[in-house]
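Hi everyone, sorry if this is the wrong subforum. Our group has a chain we'd like a structural model of before ordering constructs, and none of us has done structure prediction before. Sequence below.
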Amino acid sequence: MKYFWAIAIGIILFSGDLLAQSERDSVREENILKDSLFIEEIERKPGGKAKVLHAEPLYIDLIRDLGARAGEKEWNFAGGMKAGSNYNEYEALVEYEWAPIDRLGFEIEVPFTLFGQPAGEAASTLPANRMESLKLATQWSFLVSEKYSTTLALGYIHEFEFVNLNELRFDDIFKGNLYNPFFIAAKRWGRNFHTLLYTGPRFLKEFDNPNWERSFEINTNFHYMISGTRNFIGVEINKEVVERQLLTVFRPQMRVAISEKLMIGIVSGIPINREIKGLSSFVRIIYEPDFKAMH
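Answer:
Right subforum, don't worry. Here is the predicted structure as tokens:
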């Protein structure tokens, strides 16, 4: 009799394992189907040019989606804080981006930087608050490969640098220009894994300074997008070469869709170099008024 019960228990456990495996396989197949449908509807919109779905970095974001289609538009509202040894630095921005024709995007952005004394700290001289610049940018996706899930793009950012807010006068608003051409290469690996390279030089020329400030950006991005959604987790690695020195900040991040048209991105900043002091945080609210998923 004991052998009978042992066999019966074995059959029950084996059957339970088969059932659990079947449920896992069913969930996996459902996720694959949902993901395939979502990618299909993003990349092959009826009446629109084909595009490749890519995860967009949250801190140094793109001017418009890679392979953008005519009529796409988006509002961004963002803010962040960096803890310093003597004061805290607060940043904020508002930007609007749109695509007037297929694969060409434009952006207008106004960033702000404010400074504050941490509670309990002794009073110290704070830097002047700034409306940083009027930022105008464009981005052209010159290669969109469905076969290789790859997009290449060129872009240019021009920033009219403002004087400090306490020095702002109607006849003396700007203090210089920043020139920033850039190149983007993005690839999706399978359905969920995304990589992106954003790189280019930056040239700053202030009117009262005969010298140019030069630097070079190399931003690499790795993301995992959740099946059937635009939600992702990943890391943005911002690297800047200044006077032959490489400055690096790791920015772990996540993006969550609140609704069809609204997403929120959360970013942490972890500096690697001693020259960059203090951890930072950053939140981006993304509103796409015309976005609509079919699934």
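For your construct planning: The first strand starts at residue 73 and ends at 83. The helical segments are 2-43.
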